[in-house]
Amino acid sequence: MTANGTSPTPTWDVASDAETESTYECLDCGTRVTGTSHPGSCPNCDAPFRNCATSIE
């Protein structure tokens, strides 16, 4: 419960198991890569990647 008596909005976390591969997508050009860790920036356009297992809201 929060201070005003309401239930907090749930947070959905992506498991961070070092053995599990995730798919990452470039936020600008759509390039996709798979890896066990965050790839950093896109090799094609230098924009950031996002983990496709997380929702965009």
Q: Could you tell me the mean pLDDT?
A: 80
Q: How many DSSP helices?
A: 0
Distance between the termini: 23 Å
Going by helix content, strand content and strand pairing, the class is mainly beta
The main pleated sheet reads as: 3 strands, antiparallel
Fraction of residues in helices? under 10%
- Strand arrangement within the widest β-sheet reads 2-1-3
Report the portion of residues in β strands. 15-25%
- Rg on CA atoms, Å: 15 Å
User: How many strand elements?
Assistant: 3
Order of helices and strands, N to C?
EEE
The shape, in one word, is extended
Spans of at least 5 consecutive residues whose pLDDT stays below 50 are none
Domain DUF7129: 19-55
Protein name: DUF7129 domain-containing protein
Pfam families: DUF7129 (PF23455)
Organism: Halalkalicoccus paucihalophilus
Description of the molecule:
The structure is a single chain. With 57 residues, this protein is mainly β. Helix content is 0%, strand content 21%. The chain has a domain at 22-51. The protein is built from no helices and 3 strands. It is extended, with a radius of gyration of 15 Å. The two termini are 23 Å apart. The model has no long low-confidence stretch (mean pLDDT 80). It comes from Halalkalicoccus paucihalophilus. Pfam families: DUF7129. This is DUF7129 domain-containing protein. InterPro entries: DUF7129 (IPR055553).
